[in-house]
Amino acid sequence: MTICAISTPPGIGGIAIIRISGPEAIAIADRVWRGKSLGEAASHTAHLGVIVDPSTGNELDQAVATLFRGPRSFTGEDIVEFSVHGSRWIQTELINLLIRNGCRLADAGEFTRRAFTNGRIDLAEAEAVADVIAAESEAANRVAQQQLRGSFSRCLGRLRDGLIELASLIELELDFAEEHVEFADRGRLLALARETLATVDSLSASFATGQAIKNGIPVAIVGAPNAGKSSLLNLLLHDDRAIVSDIPGTTRDTIEDTTVVDGLSFRFIDTAGLRQTSDAIENLGIERTWTAVSRARIVLWVVDSSLEKKECRGGERPAPTGGCSSDAEEFARELSKRLPADSVVIAVLNKIDLIHPGAVQKLLDCYRHLPGVISAIAISASTGTGHDALRALLRANAFGHQSPSADASNERSSANTSPGNHCNNLPEITSGDAVIVTNARHYQALLHASDSLRRVIDGLQTTLPADLIAQDVRETIHHLSIITGDITTPDILSTIFSRFCIGK
Asked: Can you give the three-state secondary structure of 175-234, one letter per residue?
């Protein structure tokens, strides 16, 4: 059946594209087209003409028809794309005209599904189409584009080839068991299985990074009431997103918004001020603050530097043991207890416009050595001082990586960096054939593959019968094949493509 749909976003625009795909695409297009015959035109050419209702002879719009003959098209079928003026009326009338002349309105994701069904792309690449469309940052786009170009699929293909070799050697051992022929020693088989497991585990470990790139790196803004958390949020977003007030406890719930910093999307969460209070509603907000902390990759701990104790600002009395106030040390330890292992804390010393410049370095020295704090920076959310440096610090620590500066960062190594967060900056995470997993379905399949591979390794180490080991190898291949769609079901396909837009 030949399908049609509007492929550009809904609404009014300069140009709208209506796509037709299927065995009758060219014939149907020619029925409503006045210009060079598309049936006689070469593939991958564009032609100027007029859309006409053949039943009335009325002209609908001047348009450009672009022809892609199968199988050298996105879907593998004949495709015609009409570029018309972006009037809603023109778009609707053209769709109705195509339906009256033999088309069916496409289902959500049906063009991409046909590309998969016709072997133009595998399932992982098909899902990457949706990710490319949804990308809201340079990093998200580049990761999705890599998957669309087949980097992930090629990696999985190499893994399957190795596993097929492993299964073959094991099954040959079974076939010739009576002759006592050894096609490969268990040591070689074990090395191959371990190498494959390391790659699978590396792919699954990249999922946390992939989710952060795809959905925005979660950044929790925490601190005492009136420390300037809401002002900082507004500064980072370049918008008056949060209410700023001198009244403590103004923010009683989390406020969340997203912005892009140097190609990476960050999801900032302004939280309720942390303090002891008898207000039940405020306490609910504080609980949500700790929840946001537990889910954050970066915590911006906002401190009102104008209220810091005299000894922390370089007074005559020596600073307390540890270099900072006991309250600050206690709060830092509480943060460390509640943070995920791969998260980092940056101390943001706010309101430096209200203190003597000579005190700033003293405060930085205090806070940069607190437990769990990897960096400290001095800013003024009201004047914008330190804004650019803070954005650079966020970018440098997006994946648990520390990039200290001479004045603002902790000099210690990044103890909070997770082994899974091996991707530290945009050029590295999107270079070559580097693969970052962003899809939850792929992640689950990789976890299942990892489990079955571990059973393979255990079996090789404990002289488990070869037929049982071979079954675990085949199960691993099965899980990897589910990712690319070599093994699939109609239910899986329906679930995946139902999330697409119509016309994609």
From this structure: HCHHHCCCCCCHHHHHHHHHHHHHHHHHHHHCHHHHHHHHHCEEEEEEECCCCCHHHHHH
pLDDT in tens, 226-266: 888 888 888 888 766 544 445 444 444 557 788 888 888 88
Cα pseudo-dihedral 89, 94, 95, 100, rounded to 10: 130
- pLDDT tens digits, 323-344: 466 678 888 887 787 777 778 8
Give the count of alpha carbons within 13 A of 46, CB side only: 6
Rounded to the nearest 10 degrees, what angle do helices 186-205 and 440-461 cross at?
160
Quick one: DSSP state of residue 432? T
| C-beta of residue 117 within 8 angstroms of C-beta of residue 21 | no
What secondary structure does DSSP assign to 10-29, as a single string? SS-EEEEEEEEESTTHHHHH
Strands 79-86 and 13-21: antiparallel
Tokens encoding 140: 């998200």
Taking the C-alpha atoms of residue 129 and residue 68, their distance in angstroms, rounded to an integer, is: 19
Pairing type for strands 373-378 and 59-68 reads unpaired
Helix (H) or strand (E) holding 471: helix 466-484
Angle, to 10 degrees, between the axis of helix 466-484 and the axis of helix 151-175? 160
CB 209 within 8 A of CB 399: yes
Q: Is 86 helix (H, G, I), strand (E, B) or coil?
A: strand
DSSP 502: B
Convert the pLDDT of each residue in 134-189 to its tens digit: 888 888 898 999 999 999 999 999 999 989 888 887 777 665 555 555 555 778 88
Q: Are 68 and 79 in contact (CB under 8 A)?
A: yes
Closest CA to 408 of 356, 372, 380, 367: 367
C-alpha separations of 444 from 342, 439, 483 in Å: 20, 9, 10
Domains and CATH numbers, the chain: 3-121 (3.30.1360.120), 126-206+438-485 (1.20.120.430), 218-421 (3.40.50.300)
> pTM to 2 decimals?
0.75
